[in-house]
């Protein structure tokens, strides 16, 4: 029996030593101290085969063994408990002396979105509604409905991206494509703006980009005149560039308006003295506009004898360039973080 006892002792010691955590220790506890099947219980049960005169001595031996093992077991348990506690505390510890981690940088609005939002606020405050429309547009809405027939040279001036195997559809060249769509969906009187992304097949340079933004708008009602148009667009220019901003309108041909005008503001960079940006004219072109052509009203199912209207289109990229002094339009789509974080 002494042999068995010393064997158990040795095995127990090595298993106890090997236990890395409280879970593993539980396994050791089961093997040796389980009341039902533990090694100690087994030894105790073995006593019944021992001759009576030896029972007491052997029983004592077993009890001594059990006490010794339990003592070692408890020591190990308390060590492991301490270790695990320390590990948890260590994991949760906050080092108050650690220098600040760099703050997580959140994004912000693109400069074009900033100016678009500003204009949307202004127009909605004057009772305009905002319409959104498709960037992939039918040639009908982009050209034909706007009084630009198939053979018209204006189509060449607005070359764009055509869609393979999808004849009759183009990436819209201007937000004017939304004019007739909006007229068909609504009834006069109407005051609407239609901001959005446009495309052209450009040889890109500092002033031309294949992807850009416009803000289109129109007003249709009875007795609308060029004077109403000038009033509204002057207000927009003053909102953008300050209350002293002067606006001038000069005739310009656009197939979808008659008469058509070019809207210019006095160059606020050189105070109209003439500089590189205004090409020494003292004026900066910021929008196209005009009285909506009767053909366009009719395409929009509006009685051109009863109703008139004016339409206008701002190039948002250009407005932003002038407002912030951006010298190259290609920065807007370039995605360079060094450019974008300046706004
Ligand atoms: N769609 C024109 C362009 O992209 C801008 C424009 C001119 C819009 C005159 C209008 C307008 O509504 O009346 O160049």
Automatic annotation (TrEMBL):
Residues 115-342 form the Aminoacyl-transfer RNA synthetases class-II family profile domain. The lineage of its organism: Bacteria, Candidatus Magasanikiibacteriota. It comes from Candidatus Magasanikbacteria bacterium RIFOXYC2_FULL_40_16. PANTHER family: PHENYLALANINE--TRNA LIGASE, MITOCHONDRIAL (PTHR11538:SF41), PHENYLALANYL-TRNA SYNTHETASE (PTHR11538). Belongs to the class-II aminoacyl-tRNA synthetase family. Phe-tRNA synthetase alpha subunit type 1 subfamily. One of its GO terms (molecular function) is phenylalanine-tRNA ligase activity. GO terms for biological process: phenylalanyl-tRNA aminoacylation. It is found in: Cytoplasm. It catalyses: tRNA(Phe) + L-phenylalanine + ATP = L-phenylalanyl-tRNA(Phe) + AMP + diphosphate + H(+). Keywords: Aminoacyl-tRNA synthetase, ATP-binding, Cytoplasm, Ligase, Magnesium, Metal-binding, Nucleotide-binding, Protein biosynthesis. Binds 2 magnesium ions per tetramer. Its main location: cytoplasm. This is Phenylalanine--tRNA ligase alpha subunit.
